[in-house]
Amino acid sequence: MSAERKTKKTDLPERIDAANAYALEMLFSVEPVLEGVQKALDVVPGMTPSTVLHAGPPISWRRMCDPMKRAVRGALIFEGLAKDSSEAEKMILEDRIILSPNHHYDCVGPMTGIISASMPVVVTKDLTTGKKAYSTFNEGGGQALWFGSFGEETLRRLRWIRDKFAPVMKKVFASAEPISVWNILSQGIQMGDECHNRHGACTNIFLKNIVEPLFSLKISRANAMDVYRFMSANSHFFLNFTMTGCKLATDAAHDIVDSTLVTAMSRNGTVFGIRVSGLGNRWFVAKSPYLEDALYNLGYGPKDAAPDIGDSSIIETMGLGGFAIAAAPSMASFAGGGFSDAVGITNSMNLITAAKNPKFAIPSLDFQGTPTGIDIRKVVDTAILPSINSAIVHKSSGAGQIGAGIAKAPYECFEKALLAFGKRHDLAA
Amino acid sequence: MSAERKTKKTDLPERIDAANAYALEMLFSVEPVLEGVQKALDVVPGMTPSTVLHAGPPISWRRMCDPMKRAVRGALIFEGLAKDSSEAEKMILEDRIILSPNHHYDCVGPMTGIISASMPVVVTKDLTTGKKAYSTFNEGGGQALWFGSFGEETLRRLRWIRDKFAPVMKKVFASAEPISVWNILSQGIQMGDECHNRHGACTNIFLKNIVEPLFSLKISRANAMDVYRFMSANSHFFLNFTMTGCKLATDAAHDIVDSTLVTAMSRNGTVFGIRVSGLGNRWFVAKSPYLEDALYNLGYGPKDAAPDIGDSSIIETMGLGGFAIAAAPSMASFAGGGFSDAVGITNSMNLITAAKNPKFAIPSLDFQGTPTGIDIRKVVDTAILPSINSAIVHKSSGAGQIGAGIAKAPYECFEKALLAFGKRHDLAA
Predict the structure, then answer these.
(1) Smallest Cα–Cα separation from B325: which of B390, B373, B272, B380?
(2) Last residue of a domain, one of A219, A241, A263
(3) Which ipTM was obtained for this model?
(4) Residues A211, B228: C-beta atoms closer than 8 Å
(5) CATH code, B419
(6) pTM, to two decimals
(7) Whole domain around residue A206: which residue ranges?
(8) Whether A228 contacts chain B with CB within 8 A
(9) Per-residue pLDDT tens over the stretch A237-277
């Protein structure tokens, strides 16, 4: 081994620290604002009429979980590409449909996360770099595509969102002051939202921001009221915007050579995958976990649950949600714990992260920032797993959401990533 | 001393406990809802065209603090009873004006708390007993009567509230579902409001409740928008409704023979007074304190401050505000403390109260209820003083609000009340 190589090895920890610091600087520099509403086909780079985007790492049709399959078939019917479920299935099996992860298309979606060509998407723009990310509007509860449920009611709602709701919201965004995602999240954290499973305060603040532009539009009041009602009835309405903001931030920290920070965590209901800043676009995957602590709707239990699913863990990648649970102890009580358990989770997330985000101050921790920048080295060293506040969908019946709780990211993803990182740097495992 | 008298004395602690338990039962049974909007003269029992109601215990004009005097003169000009400040003063000195505490007229008002005959008041009704309480709409910041400030802008705003805002809100309340005060407060407590100095979450929830009825009214959109803007610009808009709800509840606990619970705490900027359930309508007063821990606006300091003022301490009498500060640690940090100080205050309030209110669950204390039912015996025994989250007005310049912080109720009030209680029961001091 040459002297040069030795020096290089000795310097690596410092180089990693510098790279991680730089990655965090990039992440913290992002200023996402909600810019407008467009048809996915018109703005999502690479989108085609026969593309269906989904949550999580890449996955073949064969290996997709049942809820995601239902949502994909539903999207094809919604798009008018298939007249029914069996025709949809046939098209997929004949490879006439492009199935691809949202993350590969600058998109994110909660749960099944389906985005198809004619769906309206909200464009979130990073004021610092000008980069954009896209998400659908949150559909709300019940028979909804994001919960892997599809029927007449789902279709009716998706059409209403596309044909009635989105055109109005497009005008709202055009006339409103730019809505800062961080501004709303930083207030939400002061108001009991951890900004993943609790979004009620954020949604209220968002509503407060748009009531004036919405009711000032030259449209009928009944029309404006329908739009308002749809949003105000869904305390998770802001969820998708939180996700695009977090994606823009974590993407800004991506592709920093030597950085060991996680820039995406995502699940498709079959596998859980992570991406690491210094390791390119490769996903390090493991079987998607079942939720460990969860509360089920009446009549449902662990045997009914699909494994963890959705791009929404981009929120934890950004240090919110499960990482900020001390700001929303109701989420811990939900999973059978109390306030000290919530604080315990946030504190343990501090042990696997590189920084605290001063924008998001947790009141009950003396306004300590949220733990941000998951370091694969720390996860592997401590075996403390990222804690994700998540929802649960039925594994096979199409019943949609059946519960909610806490999932733990699989150790294997971080171990694989660290091995790849070591290999790249010629280190022994 | 007769045997009978002896038995009576021995039983007193049990009788007090039973009376206090009953008083709390009455307090917890109250279900306040916002019922409607009326002119004060039409609904406030005993109101006359020349009555001006004010915060705190009774006080003569001569002893009133400067901010309250300004607000009283302002109200007389607003009513058209006086053309200017000196004419107003003259009328008062000639005893042509009835000055009386809000509390004696089923009313409450924050800070100076002025209510005059033509002012619109919100009627809050207890669904359990049918009893009603009244408050004005919160005026918002700046040159406002409640802050002891009066000028052209104050007058303009009061007229707009009376002539434009209130008629619309009257229609809103007439068409809206009844708005439950507790429902909003119980959500607010989960969202970082202690429901006195932090009312942002409660106000957002209130707004969410009334957007639909407001924008469905057959009035011009510009009109509806002006009304909406006025409310949404003031994070304290819900404060006055919290106060009427608390007054209905504490009044329900009043006049229970043998009860040692405090049923009102109020200040007029000169004296601080309390009422005790078993001691009738007498106020036990002491000099109104200056705020101990406070944050002043730029350019102002303790030497500029008027003593503590307002009926808003009815909120602490009900176990919210300072008593619930652990739910809003930002209020403690505001006064130079941190989360543990906030928890410390709430815990110490548990030492002087008789119960925990299950309706208002503090998330960071594992959803423990707010400390409710101040017992004068416990205050005197422990010398722990009720902690009140308060605002500060200028003592003499009419500048209005100059800061906010924490005030402590004077020990003397509780000592005097306990002596009176002892005297009534023939006990030695």
Answers:
(1) B390
(2) A241
(3) 0.92
(4) yes
(5) 3.90.1700.10
(6) 0.94
(7) 32-241
(8) yes
(9) 999 999 999 999 999 999 999 999 999 999 999 999 999 99
